[in-house]
Amino acid sequence: PVILITNAPVPKARVTRFFEPLGVPADAFDNVVTSGDATRRELMRRAPGPVYRIGVEGETSTYDGLELSFTGSPDEARVVCCTSLREYPHGEPDDYREELSVLAGRGLPMICANPDIQFRSGDRLIWAAGALARIYEELGGGVIRPGKPAAAIYDLAREQAAHLVGRPLD
Fold first, then answer.
1. How far apart (Å, rounded) are the C-alpha atoms in residues 106 and 84?
2. What is the pTM of this model?
C-alpha cells in the first residue's frame, strides 16, 4: 500500500480535497496520514483537557468530534495545542514569546500539530507551529511533535497500511 504522509496540521479530509485540483490521481495512493490526524490521537489521550489552543481563529477541524474542553486561561489548562500562528499568513513567532513564557512556566506540555518551522506557500515562506514549539522549548517547556519526523505519524501510517493488507506489518 501507498500511504502519503504530511505535516499538515489538519485531518486528512482537509488535505485530500486539494489533490484532484493539483492533478493527483485518486489511484496513486491508498490512504493519507496527516500530522493533524496524529495530533488528534494525542489529544484523545489527554481528554477532556482543558486544552489551551493556539491557531487560526475558527479553524477547529483538528478538534472536531473530540470530547475536549477548551480554555483561554493558562491557569485552567492541562495541555497546549498549537496548530498554527493565529495571524495566518502574517504572524511572527516572537510576538508569542510572553504568552508562551506563561504557559511554559506552568509546566504545560505543548502538542505541536505541525513541527515544521516554516513552509512555502507560492513565493513566500510562512511561519508554522514548529516555530512556536522551538520558542516554547527555549523557555523550558516540553513539546510533543506527532508529525514528521517523530514516530507517532509513522506508527499511524503503519497501522493504516496493516489495515489495508489485513495483517500486522513486520
1. 21
2. 0.94
